[in-house]
Amino acid sequence: MKEQVDVSRSPWRLGPRAARWFDFLLASALVLPTFPLTLLVGQSPYPALLSLAQTVPLFWRRRHPVAVFAVVAGASVLQAATYDMPVWGQVGFPAALYALARYGSGRSALVGLFVGLCGAVVASWVWTSAQFAAYPPGLEYIDYDMGLEDLLPYLLSITAIVLAAWALGSQARIRRAYEAGLVERGRQLALEAEQRAVLAAAEERTRIAREMHDVVAHGLSVMIVQADGARYAAAKDPQIAVRTLETVAKVGREGLTEMRRLLGLLRGTEDPALAPQPGLADLPSLVTANDHVDLEVPDPLPDVPDGVALTVFRLVQESLTNVRKHAGPQARAIVRLRAPGDAVEIEVVDDGHGASAAETSGLGLLGMRERVEVHGGTLHVGPAAGGGWAVRARIPL
User: Fold this and answer.
1) CA 334, CA 371: separation in Å to the nearest integer?
2) What is the pLDDT of residues 316-348, one digit of tens each?
3) Do 57 and 108 touch, CB atoms closer than 8 A?
4) What EC number is given for this enzyme (predicted)?
5) Is the pTM of this model over 0.70?
6) d(Cα 315, Cα 309) in Å, to the nearest integer?
């Protein structure tokens, strides 16, 4: 017996509220030790300010990973230029690098890795030089030349931390993309299975309807012929008319029994092939509560052919699916529908980073183009002005 797999289930993840609490607690755990550690070692307030500059931005690491990493990296550069000792706030750099690799793009993650490796070299040189400069004069190793073996402990340790943060973040980003692909594939398989079931059901309904037609047509034909014969024979031989009417009744009962049997197969069901197709009035159903989507449609809706309405619905559906997959969790999108009189114009524009991940030769875009071209329309897909991705179509009426 084959195991039944629920393809509709998504991998477990933190919800939006739990993610906000996790980010808050993590950033707080890195910010709060700044004050007691500064007082404990008796340092000036300047190291504490550097630590705050490197840890406070982590409160926004999930929503703005690039900006947070830039601020944390800038504070680290400022520390290397003005303060030659490690501070607590440096724990914020691997956290910011992880967030950049986890929630940013692959290209930004590589830039962050390069910055981290450069920072490892600079920090190792600054801290090692500071230790040699701190030796009191007159000691026998005052003329000792600092070499690579003196830099290696710092360099290897910091490089390992940078590589680990980048690798973990990149792996999490790749894993989430892989899981999203599996979920989407499972959804497509479920949809295809449902469509096959619909087609099979429609085919079965057609077969039953054909059988019912044969039963009814055959029974009525026999009854008409027998009734005509009984009418002509009644004047000459009433017994023939009686036997003929018995045959009519028998054929009628058999036909009625067979028709009831066939109707029993259809009773309580609705033919999926006759279900209404979605149209312009169903566009709001494509926007869920978690989407940042604005829908602009004319009121009242334009009167368009059913085929055009279905094409508009499928185009918007596919475009919003691509926004959810590629634009990013905080991306906003706007759907505009206009009917200038001789055509219907559809525009779906988002402000995310889907332009770098879009597949211009994907089956979704190919399907949209074929749907639009069937009605003699045009489709334009590509990066939007100012960033993001845009889908624009025009279908003549």
Assistant:
1) 21
2) 888 887 887 777 777 888 999 998 878 899 999
3) no
4) 2.7.13.3
5) no
6) 10
